[in-house]
Each structure stands twice: as C-alpha cells, then as structure tokens.
Specification:
Elements lengths: L4 E8 L2 E8 L6 E5 L10 H7 L4 E5 L19 H14 L5 E6 L2 H11 L4 E7 L13 H8 L3 H7 L5 H9 L10 H11 L4 H11 L1 H4 L2 H11 L2 E7 L8 H4 L9 E5 L6 H15 L2
Parallel strand pairs: 3-4, 3-5, 5-6, 6-7, 7-8
Antiparallel strand pairs: 1-2, 2-4
Length: 284
C-alpha cells in the first residue's frame, strides 16, 4: 500500500519552509536534502517509489523551491545559516534516528548537522555530494575562480550557472538515456532561479561555497569517530562532482557501500526505481 504524499509549510524563525511528507511518524525516518539548483521536486519520483515504507520528509531550503526567499539584505545566505534552519526544522518535526539522503548542496547542509548532532543520524545515503577534494571536477572551475576573486568578470562567468542552458546541461550531461530526463525538471528549476532577486541569493551561496571545503577535515573526523552506516550512490558521469569523490568516502568509512551508477548529476531522473530498491535493502 502506498501512502498519500502531503505538501506542507511550517514557520521556522519567520520563514515559511515548504516540505513534502509521506508515511507515519512511527516508520523509519528518511530525510531528503536536495541540491542546486533544484528543490524537493527532485525527489518526487523517489518519494512515490518509497511511499508506504518510510516516514519521508523533503524540505526546500530558504531561497529554493516553495520556501520563503527573503532578500539577501534580510537573510544571510550561507551554508551555515541554511543548516541552522534545517536543523530547527528537524527539531520542530521531532525527527530522530534519521537516515539522511544528501545530494549536492544537501551534502554541506546535512553534514554540518550530522557533525553537530551525530545522535540524530542513523545512516547516510550520499549521492553526488562532495566531502573530498577528489570530487571537484573541472566543470566547477568558474565557480572556484569566483570564490577566490568575486570580481565583476568572475561574476559574469559564474552567472552562467544560473542560465537555462546550464540548468538543462546539469540534467542531461552524463545521463545514460537523455530521453528519460523529463524537461519538467529543468524547466521547474529554472522557474525558481528566474524569480526576481534569486540571482543574488545564488551568487551569495556560490561565494560561500569555500566554507564547505574548509570543513572537509571536520566531516572526515565525524566519519572516523562515528562510522555511520553509509551507502554512496554516484552518477559516475557527473562532470561537476566527479566519480573519485564517491570512492574517496572509503578512506574514512571503510565499510561504506559505494555504487557507481551510469548517470549524471541528477541520476534520480532516470534511475529512481533502482535507487529506491537499493535504499530498501540498505535501511532494514
């Protein structure tokens, strides 16, 4: 039997945080943290596949999807602040013993929370989310340059990642079968990116991305000390977060199950059923 999927909003520190939810609170908790430039929309198929098995929760961060997107003068868009909002969201919903699925931006947000509150985390499911320098691909070079020197010329190059061409590329590049990638996905993401003021939000997060790399050692310490049960699922054709980044988790999590999948950055678009089966085998 499948569970109904609900679309809810909750106030966290004066921000309306939108989230998708399915399943009774008595079931194992699966928290899905999305990447850039998407939202909880990226998990729509996976939620449907797993509905009836877990208590599934997938929020949109401030500035993404259906959640509040205050001006950059009203809210400081850093990964630290996004992680604080999501941690408070977790506490408000009383989520505990969490299996945490992280992709892209979900990595630095989720791993900040996990390293601060390791008692919350039952297991990690890591999908194209970097915690090692080995995972940084050459396609990220314009963003790396912008982090190092956020001048006008560098910003112009970084702004390419906010265009419809870039969003479409992030979905199609590396896909094993491009005809399985729904245009609805990249069109939906671009709709939110094109909202007035959202470019300033995303540029602020681009500039702050270096704070994530600075925390890699801290996250490695968390892995070593707590050894959370971990499954790494990697779209091996991803040009931004490249395949060696998935394999690198084995350095600190020797028991991690690492699976390289013939897909790209948003592998769930074509492999969500396969991933759902892997999750069912992983979360007993």
């Amino acid at each position: 039997m499948k569970d109904q999927i609900f679309y809810r909003t909750i106030d966290i520190d004066g921000l309306n945080i939108f989230y998708r939810e399915s399943g009774a609170a008595t079931r194992p908790v699966l928290l899905l943290l999305h990447g850039f430039p998407s939202s909880s929309h990226m998990y729509r198929d996976l939620i449907a596949d797993l509905s009836g098995t877990y208590h599934i929760v997938a929020p949109d961060y401030p500035g993404f999807g259906q959640s509040s997107a205050p001006d950059v003068k009203q809210f400081s868009y850093t990964f630290d602040n996004l992680s604080v909002i999501i941690e408070r969201f977790i506490d408000r919903l009383q989520l505990r013993n969490i299996s945490l699925y992280i992709q892209d931006y979900g990595g630095p947000i989720g791993l900040r929370i996990a390293s601060r509150r390791p008692e919350l985390i039952r297991s990690l499911i890591i999908q194209n989310a970097n915690a090692y320098n080995e995972g940084l691909g050459d396609a990220l070079e314009p963003l790396v340059t912008y982090i190092q020197d956020p001048g006008a010329a560098q910003e112009k190059e970084a702004r390419f990642f906010l265009t419809s061409a870039a969003t479409k590329w992030m979905y199609l590049n590396g896909a094993s079968d491009k005809t399985r990638i729904s245009p609805d996905s990249y069109i939906t993401d671009q709709y939110y990116l094109d909202q007035p003021g959202n470019d300033a939000i995303q540029l602020a997060l681009f500039r702050d991305y270096g704070s994530n790399i600075a925390l890699y050692d801290e996250w490695h310490k968390y892995f070593k000390e707590h050894q959370p049960d971990t499954m790494v699922l990697w779209g091996k054709n991803d040009a931004m977060f490249i395949a060696p980044g998935g394999e690198a988790y084995r350095k600190d999590l020797p028991n991690a199950k690492i699976i390289q999948i013939d897909g790209g950055h948003f592998l769930l678009e074509e492999h969500h059923e396969y991933v759902a089966d892997l999750i069912k085998g992983f979360i007993q």
